Amino acid sequence: MNFPYFISQRIQHTKTASFSGTVTKIGVGSIALGLALMIGAFGILFGFKGAIRQKLFSLTAHVKVAKFSANESYEEYPITTESELYRHYLQIPNVTHLQVVAQKAGILKTKQDMAGVVMKGIGKDFAFKEFKDNIVEGQQLSFAKDEISKDILVSKIIANRLELKVGDHAIIYFLNAPDRPRKLTVKGIYETGLEEFDKTLIIGDIRMIQRINGWGADSVGSYEIFVRDFNQLNATAKLIQDKMQPDMKLDKVTDRFMGLFDWLSLLDRNMVIFLVLILFVASFNMISILLVMMMERTPMIGLLKALGSTNWQIRKVFLWSGFSMIARGVLYGNILGIGFCLLQQRYKIIPLDPANYYMSTVPIAMDWLVVLLLNLATISLVLLVLIIPTFVITRIQPVKAIVFKK
After folding, report:
1. Rounded to two decimals, what is the model's pTM?
2. Which of 212, 246, 280 is a domain's end point?
């Protein structure tokens, strides 16, 4: 028989009401609440970062390659699709997709109003699968083989400003070609929540921009390149540069949207501080609770010592009690934390203001490896600190402990 385990079970299941019984429940509750908060916080963090990146990468790529120029305007210089990079991009490790785009600034005019816009011209190679979740009304663009499409996608902000609906028409006057207006039809309305795009960007056929600029079919404004592992972006960018022509320049998404990614990095640092504080509070509570239990059981400790029990055997009695509390706290914490995440994922219980948070509800992304690591970290750390208060047992003398008055 495991003597320390047997004694710890008798202590925990005693029917006599005691102060230690109350604080034990508090200890279990603190561990459960702490773990639940950590699981929920990481679920929200990963969901938020994933949602922001999904929205961002639905409109732009991880890497953009364009003609080298000191010009900072929206007008682009053409690059060719006959380059080595375009023809052999799949040979670059970690690169999954390349699409060609072109952009041109203009004024979109309706009977009611007008707005300055930037048309992003896309082709059949555009990553529609990633973009489709942004469409709130209408349909995606489709391209005929021999005819330039006059359909466009406009953002919800632009649609509201110009009072446009799906199927409505608008006239666009391109800068540097105001004498060549085009009548366009709204095929769909999208919304990303990223104001930098939504305030100005419309999406149309790249062949329209090629014709306005006098480019051939093999001339485009830039390449947009997607990578498989975002954490390997810098290494992949160096491999892409090796295949670029001397007159090309490369821009990483982390450089073009530095403020956004610095903000996401700040969230990571805040999460580490949050994690440390919760684990510290849980550990401190468990130390306090174990000390209370030992003070209440001082006569029992003295009696066990008098009967020949070693200090380590008695310490293990309280370690088993502490581990039992940890196990119950972890179980309840997982139920609360994972349950909240699954409910939020399915029913969108907690709303957000899209103007401030880029999305209408709190996003959740479950990483089960992180959940497992949080469980292991909580159990290991709290169990480790439980060894500290048990050193008090070595200072208890049997003669004084047996006559100890509570």
Report:
1. 0.81
2. 246
